[in-house]
């Protein structure tokens, strides 16, 4: 069994403002840096064998806090990035709703195949995240790993491996100061 500690990055100013971040490379704010330190402290005794992270700086900063307490290097993998929101990136949720209400509704009804203009479908995100998780687990069978990523990305991993319907992915987005433990038996 491989144990994954699914860690969401700390808070950013865009989290507070309600902006869709996607692939925009936003840093942690002061609260987010403290949250990263708190999560690192909470996982200090977890016996981690490796740390993997999205290469976007908000996740990378959070992963570095884990690296400091564990002494482990961080392995960056761009497949662990957040969903690419295309034209919606940088917009407030209210702006997306106002400008793209019909497309937003369609994307919630059919998240696998409908994407924001210039963005990714949930199917594309799921495929790249599953590829990353499977590769990581093959490299570290029966080990304890931190996987530092983003809210939607972690929710996709969670529902995929817990067997929940992908249409419920939005119900499983963790807050910025949370990690979840996922144990995987398959193929490892």
Helix and strand arrangement:
Blueprint: E1 2-8, H1 13-17, H2 30-42, E2 50-53, H3 57-70, E3 74-76, H4 93-99, H5 101-109, H6 122-139, E4 144-149, H7 151-162, E5 179-184
Parallel strand pairs: 1-4, 2-3, 2-4
Antiparallel strand pairs: 1-5
Concise description?
The protein is α/β, with parallel strands linked by helices. It is built from 7 helices and 5 strands; from the N terminus they run βααβαβαααβαβ. 41% of the residues lie in helices and 14% in strands.
Structural commentary:
This protein is α/β, with parallel strands linked by helices. The chain has a single domain, classed as Rossmann fold. The chain has seven helices and five strands. Strands 3-2-4-1-5 form a five-stranded mixed β-sheet, sandwiched between helices. The longest helix is centred in the C-terminal third of the chain and has 18 residues, at 122-139. The chain is globular and about 45 Å long.
């Amino acid at each position: 069994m491989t144990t994954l500690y699914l860690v969401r990055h700390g808070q950013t100013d865009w989290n507070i403002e309600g902006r869709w971040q996607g692939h925009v490379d936003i840093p942690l704010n002061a609260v987010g840096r403290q949250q990263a330190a708190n999560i690192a402290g909470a996982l200090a005794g977890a016996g981690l064998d490796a740390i993997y992270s999205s290469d976007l700086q908000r996740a990378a900063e959070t992963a570095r806090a884990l690296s400091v307490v564990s002494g482990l290097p961080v392995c960056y993998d761009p497949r662990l990035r957040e969903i690419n929101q295309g034209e919606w990136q940088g917009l407030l949720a209210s702006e997306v709703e106002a400008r793209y209400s019909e497309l937003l509704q369609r994307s919630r009804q059919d998240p696998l195949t409908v994407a924001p203009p210039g963005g990714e479908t949930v199917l594309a995100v799921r495929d790249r995240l599953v590829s990353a998780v499977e590769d990581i687990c093959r490299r570290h069978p029966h080990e304890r790993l931190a996987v530092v990523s983003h809210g939607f990305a972690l929710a996709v991993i969670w529902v995929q491996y817990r067997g929940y319907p992908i249409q419920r992915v939005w119900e499983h987005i963790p807050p910025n100061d949370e990690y979840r433990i996922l144990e995987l038996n398959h193929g490892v």
